[in-house]
Amino acid sequence: MRLVLLGAPGSGKGTQAARLKEHLQVPHISTGDLLRAEVAAGSKLGLEAKEVMARGELVSDAILLGMLEDRVSRADTANGFILDGYPRNLTQADALDALLKRIGQPMDYAVQLDVPTELLVERIAGRAAAEGRADDNPESVRKRLEVYNTQTAPVIEFYRQHGQLTVVDGVGALDEVFNRVVSALAPTADVG
Ligand code: AP5
């Protein structure tokens, strides 16, 4: 199964993807995690991305597409994947669509985790206190939410128009949200 998780910063994409990965037995591909690994490794790409990420802006489409093509072409994606953090704008949505058509593996589901802004801010503040992620400071969070509303929200419409979108209430205990996502996938959840 090929699934993309959509939602604002703090909506629970990473949290739910980690659980869905076990349930569906397909890899979790987080472009944020891939970028943070490059930053931690001090690679050329990581050095380019570091400041952009800290400001809460989007890293260039060219870098992201190269990274995604590389990751999706690995053998462990043969039965699908859970994509988290990509696509982030319509250019990326078109590029992903073209990539999946080229490899003959169309997206099965786009699931949007819907969470009100006040709760997003509260969750990210909680993570900032617990983990100190570089872009979880109030100024970057404001920017990330603005980028989401202006650049990423149209991607939701893109999947709606393609008939692939399911909106899931992302408010509640982790298990409750997980069960809602699994129910949304139910008709084909056991198909590879
Ligand atoms: P990325 O890592 O993708 O960050 P994000 O989209 O801002 O998402 P978050 O990790 O903040 O939120 P999430 O929805 O995954 O929620 P989570 O499960 O962590 O991207 C970071 C940066 O990388 C971008 O700003 C950009 O610069 C760059 N980047 C990445 N992809 C890119 C792309 N495609 N193009 C260009 N640039 C790109 O949960 C958040 C918190 O809430 C956690 O503490 C969690 O424990 C808690 N929580 C989750 N669910 C619940 C719940 N149900 N109840 C209570 N708490 C909960």
Automatic annotation (TrEMBL):
KW Cytoplasm (keyword) present: yes
GO cellular component, one term: cytoplasm
This protein's UniProt keywords: ATP-binding, Cytoplasm, Kinase, Nucleotide biosynthesis, Nucleotide-binding, Transferase
Subcellular location: Cytoplasm
Pfam family, one: ADK
EC number: 2.7.4.3
GO BP annotations listed: AMP salvage
Residues annotated for AMP binding in this entry: 31, 36, 57-59, 85-88, 92, 133, 144
Pathway(s) this gene product operates in, as recorded in its UniProt entry: Purine metabolism; AMP biosynthesis via salvage pathway; AMP from ADP: step 1/1
Catalytic activity entry: AMP + ATP = 2 ADP
EC primary class: transferase
Residues bound to ATP: 10-15, 127, 172
GO function term, MF aspect, one: AMP kinase activity
Keyword Glycosyltransferase: no
Summary of the function given for this chain in its UniProt record: Catalyzes the reversible transfer of the terminal phosphate group between ATP and AMP. Plays an important role in cellular energy homeostasis and in adenine nucleotide metabolism.
Domain comment, as recorded: Consists of three domains, a large central CORE domain and two small peripheral domains, NMPbind and LID, which undergo movements during catalysis. The LID domain closes over the site of phosphoryl transfer upon ATP binding. Assembling and dissambling the active center during each catalytic cycle provides an effective means to prevent ATP hydrolysis.
Subunit structure: Monomer.
Name of the protein in question: Adenylate kinase
Taxonomic placement: Bacteria, Pseudomonadati, Pseudomonadota, Gammaproteobacteria, Lysobacterales
UniProt gene name: adk
